[in-house]
Amino acid sequence: MAGPVAAEAEVELVPDLPGLGRALQAVAYPAQGRTTVGWDEFFGAARTAEMQREAEAALGTISRAAGELISTAAGVLDLAADGRLRKVAETVFPDLPPDETAGRIGELVTLLLALAALNSGAARWRHSWTGTAALVAPDGGPFDLAGPAALVGDPATVGAARERLEALGVDLEATGDAWPAGAAAGGTVVGGVVNLVVDGSRTDLLIVDTGLFLVPGLPRSRNGSAKRRLAQFAAADVPHQRNVAAPGSRFVPYAEVARLTQTRRTPKSWDLSLRDGGLLSLRTALDSDELPGGWAALDDAVAFLASTR
User: Fold this and answer.
1) What confidence category does residue 171 fall into, taking pLDDT thresholds of 50, 70 and 90?
2) Domains: count for the chain
3) Does residue 209 belong to any structural domain of this protein?
4) In whole angstroms, how far apart are CA 223 and each of 126, 219, 235, 287?
5) Which domain does 302 fall in, by range?
6) Which region holds residue 33: left if phi is over 0, alpha if psi is between -120 and 50, else beta?
């Protein structure tokens, strides 16, 4: 029992079931700061949190492929309305046949609409001990997202889908804990390089799967501490908890990069043209060094930016 109990200790909601609920509260769920809820809400919160993680990853991928920040179901419907959603999906899944691509689009749209419905209070989960959990209206009545989701598949009927969703009380901008503009989009650190030169200043870099996290570098007199400091930032997940990073740190989502141009091969230098009109100049220096896998991660990021713009 030690493994499961420890794994559940971070859960903030305590299921309310006579006997078992009290036992869990005594063993795995300290009463302080916890809330006792029914099983529907307990399982619903866990299921919604998992959906949120899936949505954040999907929206990050869509944003990179579309070349703009897409952070809500409303943004995805905008892409569908002007016919770009299928093109984005074909970029993300280049090897899939058209019918499977359409299926992936349908799954994504259904996920985002369900999450928007939950976050806007238009729907809730109903747990079942013998079958699949169901998305229902607040009063427990039926809640149909299949119809609106199907309408999103055709640019000509996206408007009708919006009307039906509005009638259901779904706020397409309701993102819950989804990532805001400029955030790390639930990204994972995949590598790091110290002592680069960014816009003329010594800078350390964490390569995240959703963007580049720039940290003001240490002076040359403290060069021996640079890799250790950057590794600590990576372990602390600074793209999400930026207060632990150095003042002046900056996250640049890939979606904000309009174009990447390699300006020199030795030393390697790149110009990143940003969608807001800004320009970011990045080059390696003689004392540039990597965390394990850092150079390969940077090469992959550069190749991605060069191939998708």
Assistant:
1) very high
2) 2
3) yes
4) 56, 7, 20, 9
5) 189-308
6) left
pLDDT tens digits, one per residue of 200-237: 999 999 998 778 999 999 999 898 899 999 988 887 76
Task: Provide the whole-model pTM.
Answer: 0.52
The amino acid at 262 = Q
Measured distance CA(306)–CA(309) in Å, rounded:
6
39 residue type, one letter: W
Query: Would you state the torsion angle of the CA atoms of residues 118, 210, 7, 243, taken in this order, to the nearest 10 degrees?
Result: -100
DSSP single-letter state for residue 140: S
- β 250-253/257-265 pair status: unpaired
DSSP secondary structure code for residue 166 in this structure = H
Q: Is residue 82 part of a domain?
A: yes
Give the containing element (helix H, strand E) for 73.
Answer: helix 73-81
Residue 51 buriedness (CB in 10 A; 0-12 / 13-18 / 19+) = middle
Give me the residue label for tokens 């309701």: 174
Distance (Å, rounded) from C-alpha 255 to C-alpha 64? 5
**Side chain identity at 59, as an amino acid letter?**
L
How far, in Å, CA of 141 to CA of 131, rounded? 17
Q: What is the DSSP string of 238-277?
A: TTT-GGGSPTT-EEEEGGGEEEEEEEEETTEEEEEEETTS
CA angle 47, 120, 84 (to 5 degrees): 85
- With contact defined as beta carbons under 8 Å apart, do 177 and 274 qualify? no
Reading the block at residue 109, the tokens are 């749209």
Same domain, 92 and 213: no
What is the amino acid identity at position 210?
A: T
**Rounded-to-10 torsion of CA 153, 134, 40, 131:** -140
